[in-house]
Amino acid sequence: MAVIDFHTHVLPGIDDGSRHALESLDMLKLEAEQGIDSVVATSHFYAKHDRISSFLNRRQDSFETLQRAISQEYANSDSKSTEQLHKDLPRIYLGAEVAFFDGISRADDIHKLTVEGTNLLLLEMPFGRWTSGNMEEVRYLVHHSGLQIMLVHLERFLLVPENKKKIYELLELPCILQVNAGSMLKWKTRGQSLKLFKTKGSGILGSDAHGTDYRAPNLAAGREVLAKKLGQSFLDEMDRLGAELLADATVPVI
């Protein structure tokens, strides 16, 4: 079964993730070394600062910049062709990490921010106390938008005590839980993250990688802990779910 990193900021120069194409290339190499077959490029989208159309244009430009860097890396190499390098590196799927905003459930073209070729939308909840209005918008997205909603790094919002009950209310919805691998590597956050997985009964582990030094790809280490704590069968089911989510996804080609 393919191993997929659903949460990465691997595209260069588009958000607070990779600073340039060579760093992006190094991030992809790190993912490959960890046995990752595919990554989803989930650059931040903030409705307060961007339009969907301009974001998609910048994302495409960033992706093409990365693809040129990959090609240039091996342009003069006799040992590997560019085609072979693309096979060695993880496949890239284009998506977005969409920050919650008031009115998101009624926003035009929100479906354009899904992982390409799918109806999967990665949603980042507000960093603050959630209101009843916030919760209603998420419920509407889950039940009426026609989108599959993946709630990203949900464990991070446990830092706001008032949100804890609401987090478990969200887990009752037919949505997808995503937890960051880094939370599995720290004893202070591991227990709560495991509890989220146990409560939901399934979920996705992602690296939320932002670079090669700061928040480097760490999915393999997180997966190792998850398998140890919840069993290999849980990890196998996670990979099956991941493959299902990307079954119709589009891999961009330059």
**How many strands, what sense, and barrel or not for the largest sheet?**
7 strands, parallel
> What is the CATH fold-level name?
TIM Barrel
Number of domains: 1
Task: Output the CATH homologous superfamily.
Answer: Metal-dependent hydrolases
CATH top level assignment: Alpha Beta
Rg, rounded, reads 18 Å
**Helix/strand-derived class?**
alpha/beta
Provide mean pLDDT, rounded.
94
Secondary-structure element pattern, one letter each: EHEHHEEHEHEHEHH
Strand content: 15-25%
Strand order in space, largest sheet = 1-2-3-4-5-6-7
Treating each run of at least 4 consecutive H or I residues as one helix, how many helices?
8
Stretches with pLDDT under 50, minimum 5 residues: none
CATH architecture designation: Alpha-Beta Barrel
As a percent range, the share of helical residues equals 40-55%
Any overview of this molecule?
The longest helix is centred in the first third of the chain and has 22 residues, at 52-73. This protein has a seven-stranded parallel β-sheet. It is globular, with a radius of gyration of 18 Å. It has one domain (4-245): Alpha-Beta Barrel (TIM Barrel), CATH 3.20.20. It has helices at 21-33, 52-73, 82-88, 132-144, 164-171, 187-200, 219-230, 232-245; strands at residues 4-8, 38-45, 91-99, 120-124, 148-151, 176-180, 204-206. The chain is α/β, with parallel strands linked by helices and 254 residues long. 41% of the residues lie in helices and 15% in strands. The chain has eight helices and seven strands; from the N terminus they run βαβααββαβαβαβαα. Helix 1 (21-33) packs across helix 2 (52-73).
